[in-house]
Amino acid sequence: MRATRATKALLALVESQPGVQWSVAEVQARLQKMGVEVNRVTSYRLLDRLAAAGKLVKSVDAERLTRYALRADAQEPLQVRYECTDCHSVQSLEERAGDAATARVNQAMAQYLQVLQEQGLAPEQTELRLQGLCADCKHDPDKS
């Protein structure tokens, strides 16, 4: 992958906010604010290439919108995210449940991945996405 101005700006953007899952439109708008003009197709290609290279994780949210996030530490067997079905905010398990819950989920997933590997499978990415209302949307009477 060539280290173009757009590629460097995109990497700087996602690395500056590692917990954010970016849509193509959000990336494109933010890059334009940074003075880097890229069209929609180029934005898609850059994001897809970075995902294929293992730098980003590509996922689809509840609205079927493709999002990209900085890949977490490779030592973690699982990325657990909670997505609000109303405001579409995404939070990681580490942020909401704390270290003890994260350790238990990661331990269980490591055991599960070990069984898969023993069966000859080699998963490269494992993500658990929970969906529902976030605390703000749940308590906002206008969103009911």
From TrEMBL:
GO MF terms, alphabetically ordered: DNA binding; DNA-binding transcription factor activity; metal ion binding
Residues that bind Zn(2+): 84, 87, 134, 137
Cofactor: Zn(2+)
Cofactor annotation remark: Binds 1 zinc ion per subunit.
UniProt entry keywords in alphabetical sequence: DNA-binding, Metal-binding, Repressor, Transcription, Transcription regulation, Zinc
InterPro entries: FUR, Fur_C, WH-like_DNA-bd_sf, WH_DNA-bd_sf
Family of the protein in this entry: Belongs to the Fur family.
Name used for this protein in its record: Transcriptional repressor
